[in-house]
Write a structure and sequence with these properties.
Layout (H helix, E strand, L loop, with lengths): L9 E10 L2 H6 L4 H18 L3 H5 L3 H19 L3 E12 L5 H70 L1 H11 L6
Antiparallel strand pairs: 1-2
Length: 187
C-alpha cells in the first residue's frame, strides 16, 4: 500500500465478523465474503494512504485499525450485508523486502537524530545554568566593586569637605596642620 508520505508498505490484517442477519447475508449481496474482503481492502488502503508510513509502522497501528473497522462497518451496514464486525486488527506491517535495508537505515538515522537532540538538550540543561551562575557572580562582583568605589569617593569627598570647612575658618592653622600631616605636599 502507498502511504501518505509516498512510501510503500506491506500491510496484513485480520477481520473478524459475526453474521447477525443470515437472510441479508445470503441474499442482499452477491458473494458476501468477497464483498467484505473488497470493502475492507479499499477502506484500509484509504486509511493507510492518509497517514505517514512511519506512523502506520509504529505508533498509529491502533488508530488505523479502529478507523478501518468503523468505516468498514459503516459501508457494510449501508450495503445491508447482515454482518457485524467484531475486530479489525493489523497483523504485520513492514516495508517491502526490496526496500527493507534502506528503511532500516532511515529508522537508524532518525534514532541517531533523536539521540543527538537529546544529548544537545542535556548539555544545554547542564551548561546554561552554569553560565547563568558565572554571569550572576560577575555581576555581583562588579556591583560590589562599584559600591566600594562610590563609598571610597564619598568618604574622600567628605574628608575634603571637612578639611575645606576648617580651612575656610582658619586658613593659616589648617595649612600648617596640613603640611605637618602631609609633609611631601605643598599647598
Amino acid at each position: 500500500m502507498l502511504t501518505g508520505d509516498l512510501n510503500v508498505i506491506d500491510v496484513q490484517w485480520i477481520l473478524q465478523y459475526r453474521i447477525e442477519d443470515p437472510i441479508r447475508y445470503l441474499f442482499n449481496v452477491r458473494d458476501t465474503p468477497q464483498t467484505i474482503r473488497d470493502i475492507s481492502e479499499a477502506v484500509m488502503r484509504r486509511v493507510v494512504g492518509n497517514r505517514l508510513g512511519s506512523d502506520v509502522l509504529t505508533v498509529g497501528r491502533v488508530e488505523v485499525s479502529t478507523e478501518a473497522r468503523e468505516e468498514t462497518q459503516k459501508i457494510l451496514t449501508e450495503y445491508g450485508t447482515g454482518v457485524r464486525l467484531v475486530t479489525v486488527e493489523l497483523q504485520d506491517v513492514t516495508p517491502p523486502h526490496a526496500v527493507k535495508p534502506a528503511f532500516n537505515e532511515v529508522n537508524e538515522a532518525r534514532q541517531d537524530r533523536e539521540r543527538t537532540i537529546n544529548q544537545a538538550q542535556e548539555r544545554a540543561y547542564r551548561e546554561i545554568p552554569k553560565a547563568r551562575g558565572v554571569g550572576s557572580q560577575s555581576i555581583s562582583e562588579a556591583e560590589g566593586y562599584a559600591l566600594e568605589r562610590v563609598n571610597r569617593a564619598t568618604g574622600e569627598a567628605a574628608r575634603f569637605q571637612a578639611v575645606l570647612s576648617e580651612y575656610l575658618r582658619a586658613p593659616e592653622v589648617t595649612r600648617r596642620g596640613y603640611l605637618e600631616v602631609f609633609p611631601h605636599k605643598n599647598p
